[in-house]
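Let's study today's protein:

:::
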Amino acid sequence: MQPLLHDVVICVDAPAFAASPRDGQLRGAHVQGFYDHDRRLLHTLCLLLDDREPEPIGVQPLGPHQVRFTAVHRDPRDRTDDPTMIVERVRTAGVGETIVLRNVGTRGRTLRVELAAATDLADIADVKRGRRRALVPCTGASDGAGLEWRSASGHAELRTTVSAIGPAVADGPEGGTLTWSPVVLRPGESWQVTVTVAGRAALEPSGHPVRPGEPASWSEPVIETDDRRLRDLVSWGLRDLDALRLADPLGGADGAAEDQFIAAGCPWYLTLFGRDSIWSARMLLPLGTDLARGTLWALARRQGRVHDVFREEAPGRILHELRPATAQHGNGMRLPSHYYGSVDATPLFVTLLVEAWHWGLPDAEVDALLPYAERAMDWVLERTGEDTDGLLRYNPPRSDGLRHQSWKDSEDAVRDAAGRRIEPPLALCEVQGYAYEAANGLAELLRDRNRPDEAQQLLNWATALKKRFADLFWLPSPDGPATRYVAIAVGHGPTPVSGAASNMGQLLSTGILDEAECRDVAAWLTDPQLNSGWGLRSRSATVPGFNPLSYHGGSVWTHDTAIAVRGLCATGHHPEALALLHGLLDAATHFGYRMPELYAGDARSNGSPAPLAYPAACRPQGWSAASGVAVLAALLGLRPDATCRRLTARPAAPTPLLVRGLVLAGHRLTVEVDRKATVSGLPEGWRVQDG
């Protein structure tokens, strides 16, 4: 079974991470270990003092990439109840750890220090499915100060700083041990050893993402507000995003900047994911366009070129996920290294380019990426043209790929109001919104490039899609908060799938809904059926099959709530947006502002306990970490228009708010909101228009 993560301490510096229990001891269980490039390098690293494990007393994050574990080693001969030997382990992702013993007592101590290490060199896909692999035999390092492991799948090594006391090295088929003895510490003295962990897969995959060589392209904005929750959510999110950055090794040639993007999440998805990386880049556009540029190029280089059933590749289709090799993912699912099984990444790619253009992506970059966006749109038009209802559907061509191919991609992601699982082919409601938004945005860009005929064809297609959507997706609900709601999907027939779900919230900012339809959706999003009080539930709590701790059947997804807030603000439903936002911000206080991928959708009440994290949720996770910037931008209500150099400001902030350091076309803005928005620092030729 998939290992649970809710009590796991994770530090990450993509593509490396370390996962530990709260006492810091790695015992070879579950997800524990040091990882790099989807390979577990070490799964056991257990510290013993005089044949006993230290007693843990605390764990302290020192940043996204580093954590400190503190323990004590007590001695019955001490004439005090206070600990006199403090043990500190500072673990750093991608590096290793430093172990410090401090004698804070009044008498000397003589210790035997042992460090036991072992590994299975498992692939992350095997770890995720709970598959146990045999231990790899261990050998002593040639320099006498470490251990090594080698197998057909990879190699790992553990090195220590040279010490006058040793270490003594013992190795064997089940692991190795480093021993320092005797370690003599007089009162006030300390002893330290640094352990480095390194290694890789046996075969380096060509073009696989690497650790960035350049710093993040964004700077943290200065936020002045009475609401500390908002400020801390943005700040902690940006720290996690910095640790989740990866670079495309195929880019950055001829002195150009690196093409960086955000990995989907740690530990399971620490790589390029089309949908997730695109949404993270979209959310961060108010801080600059470099991340969007890097994300677009990383995906453009891997855009589908041929028809391939196993990869589900097609010309123009955007990659779903990139892995080092083909792998078994459990439940009979076998995915190739380059997998295209996503229906939404392709239209989202088009929209990211359009939004980056509006936020000031240089014309040369826009023009270079435009052919890729056109090919992506061609794929959308071809798929809808083949559909009898003219909708963008998914219908997986093979049984061992992803069954559901939108962001709700679990086995039971789509259920109806009776709780029955609904199988593909399916046209998800938000996917039609993505396609509509992409067509309108690309038409706007083509018209700006003096291609009016092609632009008009896209606009005509979008208009027809909007009408089909209005005819097929609405269901009556006489007893609901509004008299109708948007079906999560349309299946055969076409038959709409009944039962209210959060998907309709992602339609608000796409333009596919008219004013009255937006008002009905807003009523549903804030009704207790969907609004848990901590954020937006993925499925209504009133339908059979609702489960607050399911992946997509009632849990709250951070990014989904943020996108709904963004859409509510964009359509002028500010009270509804603030109701969801305050629930999200309150939840953030209980998660230390490192928002998990998703958390439980239990109803909030006066005096109710803190929300529970979904037990296998990624944390940190890309679009969850980016959600703070998304809701900040939503409150400011900024919408740039590159065609007429106009920045519309329609703030929703309930209290005064001042933000310095937003970026438009390379210029740093200051935005002050006090009922209305005042913007300074605009690029030359730009003007502000009130919403």
Notes: Residues 40 and 130 are 13 Å apart (CA to CA). The chain has a mean pLDDT of 94. DSSP finds 13 helices and 36 strands in the chain. Residues 222-674 form a domain with the Glycosyltransferase fold (CATH 1.50.10.10).
